[in-house]
């Protein structure tokens, strides 16, 4: 039975009225909502502007005190010395960063690429299903944990292996561990690139009598080269910006000499060292972390743009 | 006349197959190396950290004596920072993604926003720390507070959430949008009632994974001036704080062996938190993900 209760009934007129008001309400929403979302999108642009602006202004203040020529040509970095004797030569920090990055790449590129080739060319779907999540776990481990691992396991291990021993803080141990951290990234990005190569090309080569190894090296790898190289470049960028591993295991002795078994300091480790100390706001040392941060930012930006350029420019379309 | 010299092919085939076998072995070895490292890492941390792990370790404050040290302040600090980061980064990230996928016209501005986001994802985390130090700590005068830390972390993980949300929104098929429009729904109604609910599992998975990255992040908060030695729990978002990774860094950088042991115990707690977060993310992805 339909309820005849009067209070529950609405006249057609009131329903139309209600509909109209709700429609005008939703018309307002239709106009306001996109603007709110646009503001969200603009905040991401402001983040970039904020980064560039803060780095630039504070770096500018720094260069008012220390000449830009000295900054880029001096090979000594001793900011904590008394005023007149302080040296701000970023080359020492850059060398530290590049040493660690080079070691990391020596570890990560062959192992990461080999794992990628195995996963995309040899492994069965079942094996892949087991190994890929494990690689993801490895990629998800916080860098502080890797730093702990470098200091308390890899360094003592290297100390036993290397004939002359190795100091507690050195370039080799964090370099190797940064490399281990980057392996999953290179492996998964390279594997994606190789997976994008169509199967018909593999089958064509196999039908001509090529072995799987020959297919991988002479067909798949050349076809996926842009993606593979882009993954290397992104790996380099990650290694340059890596902070905690090199801070914990690398030490704090900036040097422009290349010595893998001695303490070094990277750009990132210097920034951490200063923020951990009791450096006052407005001192030259305070501004120096922005100049170092700016250099770091430019390094990684160039690497990221290079990676994008490589994967866009040299992509082979099938 | 035989076109193919079978003898020489046979001869070379042996070395080619051998090369294939050796290469395959090396490739497997490389893959196993990663697994081996993961195994050693977990074994080392468990063997060093388990003896010190107890309920007291979780509920005690940091201490100069390793046997009385605990992670209570750091654990609550992490929770406080995440309480700021999660809503801020979720709203900003999803808002940006909806704008880019649903509203933005295909023009230079949209392309610029997109490129900007992918470049932000490549900026080292420590640079975000410098940004937070200048803008939030000094310019806005927030000090080294939970709020400053949480906002910095939000900006850090924003690109990850945007990209994940965009992918989730893109998987919602055109047809159900058109069906909604066909029923007379407006654009906002369609987004709110159709697209957003359908994309939500993917968005949540991406957000939780991004947050788990923020939980393990140390460098930006160190630069912001988060304290390393804290014997109090944050009272509100303007309190000073420490987080788990910073506490672990503090213990790891001390020379005494005992502090390395409790650092390992702390790492176990940190990894358990990350494991739980990742499991929730995977659960959401598997349980609620709809294939259209």
UniProtKB/TrEMBL annotation, chain B:
It is a multi-pass membrane protein. Residues 75-280 form the ABC transmembrane type-1 domain. It comes from the Bacteria. Its main location: membrane. It holds the Pfam family BPD_transp_1. The chain crosses the membrane at residues 21-46, 71-100, 120-140, 146-164, 194-215, 259-284. Keywords: Cell membrane, Membrane, Transmembrane, Transmembrane helix, Transport. InterPro entries: MetI-like, MetI-like_sf, Phosphate_PstA. The keyword Transcription does not apply. PANTHER family: PHOSPHATE TRANSPORT SYSTEM PERMEASE PROTEIN PSTA, PHOSPHATE TRANSPORT SYSTEM PERMEASE PROTEIN PSTA-RELATED. Belongs to the binding-protein-dependent transport system permease family. CysTW subfamily. This is Phosphate transport system permease protein PstA. It comes from Fictibacillus nanhaiensis.
């Amino acid at each position: 039975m339909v309820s005849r209760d009067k209070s529950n009934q609405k006249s057609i007129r009131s329903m139309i009225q209600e509909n109209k008001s709700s429609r005008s309400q939703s018309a307002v929403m239709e106009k306001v909502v996109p603007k709110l979302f646009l503001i969200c999108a603009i905040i991401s642009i402001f983040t970039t502007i904020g980064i560039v602006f803060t780095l630039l202004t504070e770096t500018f203040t720094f260069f008012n005190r220390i000449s830009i020529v000295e900054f880029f040509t001096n090979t000594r970095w001793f900011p904590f010395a008394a005023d007149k004797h302080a040296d701000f030569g970023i080359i020492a920090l850059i060398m530290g960063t590049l040493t660690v990055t080079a070691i990391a790449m020596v570890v990560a590129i062959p192992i990461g690429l080999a794992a990628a080739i195995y996963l995309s060319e040899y492994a069965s779907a079942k094996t892949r299903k087991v190994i890929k999540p494990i690689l993801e776990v490895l990629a998800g481990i916080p860098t502080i944990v890797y730093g702990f691992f470098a200091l308390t396991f890899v360094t003592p291990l290297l100390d036993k292996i290397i004939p002359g021993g190795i100091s507690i803080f050195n370039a080799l141990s964090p370099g190797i561990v940064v490399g281990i951290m980057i392996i999953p990234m290179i492996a998964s990005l390279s594997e994606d690139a190789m997976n994008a190569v169509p199967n018909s090309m593999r089958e064509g080569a196999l039908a001509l009598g090529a072995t799987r190894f020959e297919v991988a090296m002479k067909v798949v790898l050349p076809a996926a080269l842009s993606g593979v190289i882009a993954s290397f470049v992104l790996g380099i960028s990650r290694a340059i910006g890596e902070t905690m591993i090199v801070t914990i295991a690398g030490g704090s002795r900036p040097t422009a000499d290349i010595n893998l078994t001695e303490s070094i300091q990277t750009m990132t480790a210097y920034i951490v060292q200063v923020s951990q100390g009791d450096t006052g706001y407005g001192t030259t040392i305070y501004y120096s972390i922005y100049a170092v941060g700016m250099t770091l930012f430019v390094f990684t930006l160039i690497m990221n743009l290079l990676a994008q350029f490589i994967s866009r420019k040299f992509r082979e379309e099938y | 006349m035989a076109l193919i010299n079978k003898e020489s092919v046979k001869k070379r085939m042996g070395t080619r197959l051998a090369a294939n076998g050796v290469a395959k072995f090396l490739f497997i070895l490389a893959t196993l190396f990663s697994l081996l490292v993961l195994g050693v890492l977990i074994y080392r941390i468990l063997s060093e950290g388990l003896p010190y792990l107890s309920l007291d370790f979780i509920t005690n404050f940091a201490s100069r004596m390793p046997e009385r040290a605990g992670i209570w302040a750091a654990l609550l600090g992490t929770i406080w920072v995440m309480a700021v980061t999660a809503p801020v980064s979720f709203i900003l990230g999803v808002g940006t993604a909806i704008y880019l996928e649903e509203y933005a016209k295909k023009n230079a501005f949209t392309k610029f926003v997109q490129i900007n986001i992918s470049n932000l994802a490549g900026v080292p985390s420590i640079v975000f720390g410098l940004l937070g130090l200048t803008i939030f700590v000094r310019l806005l005068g927030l000090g080294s507070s939970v709020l400053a830390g949480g906002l910095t972390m939000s900006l850090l993980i924003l690109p990850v959430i945007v990209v994940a949300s965009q992918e989730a929104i893109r998987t919602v098929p055109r047809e159900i949008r058109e069906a909604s429009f066909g029923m007379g729904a407006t654009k906002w109604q369609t987004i709110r009632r159709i697209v957003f609910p359908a994309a939500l599992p993917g968005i949540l998975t991406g957000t939780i994974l991004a947050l788990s990255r923020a939980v393990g992040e140390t460098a930006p908060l160190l630069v912001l001036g988060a304290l390393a030695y804290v014997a109090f729990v944050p009272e509100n978002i303007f309190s000073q704080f420490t987080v788990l990774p910073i506490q672990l860094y503090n213990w790891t950088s001390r020379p005494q062996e005992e502090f390395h042991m409790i650092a390992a115990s702390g790492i176990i707690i940190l990894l358990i938190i990350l494991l739980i977060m990742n499991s929730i993310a995977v659960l959401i992805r598997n349980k609620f993900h709809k294939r259209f």
